[in-house]
């Protein structure tokens, strides 16, 4: 029998497989993350009961804050005039069937929302929706 001590190589820990696994996990989490579209403008939506409207991939978002200022896709308009609003709606519309989603603050003037409806219908928008939140 041979009982001599065999010389063992020193163990090496390779970091390459661990780095590969970390990068794969990083890619997995980046791909599976869902991004929610949150408005940077603070708007307290009015409450309503009813069914939820169908979601569209592409919508034109028009926001009205408490003071009646208009924002299109979170970009403020230069003034509150209806002519400026009409020009901005005309310029930001890509196709005729794009829906218009109106986020009006609950404390905003009703006249501002009525004016938006009037201008949008004159500009040819046929699919107009108001955003609301569920009642408590």
Tell me briefly what this model is:
This protein has 136 residues and is an alpha/beta fold. The chain has three helices and five strands. Helices cover 30% and strands 13% of the residues.
- CATH architecture verdict of the domain at 60-130: 2-Layer Sandwich
**Helix segment tally:** 3
Low-confidence stretches: none
Q: State the secondary-structure class.
A: alpha/beta
Strand content: 5-15%
- Average predicted confidence as pLDDT: 79
- The dominant shape is rod-shaped
Instruction: State Rg.
Output: 28 Å
Number of strands: 5
> Could you say what the CATH topology of the domain at 60-130 is called?
Nucleotidyltransferase, domain 5
Strand order of the largest sheet: 3-2-1-4-5
Specify the biggest β-sheet.
5 strands, mixed
CATH class of the domain at 60-130: Alpha Beta
Whole-Å distance between the termini? 84 Å
Oligomer: single chain
Q: What fraction, in percent, of the residue positions are helical?
A: 25-40%
* H and E string: HEEEHEHE
Report what the structure shows:
The structure is a single chain. With 136 residues, the chain is an alpha/beta fold. It is built from 3 helices and 5 strands, in the order H-E-E-E-H-E-H-E. The protein has helices at 16-32, 82-92, 110-122; strands at 60-64, 70-72, 75-76, 100-104, 128-130. It has a 5-stranded mixed sheet with strand order 3-2-1-4-5, with helices on one face. The longest helix is centred in the first third of the chain and has 17 residues, at 16-32. The chain is rod-shaped and about 100 Å long. It starts with 15 loop residues before the first helix and ends in a 6-residue tail after the last strand.
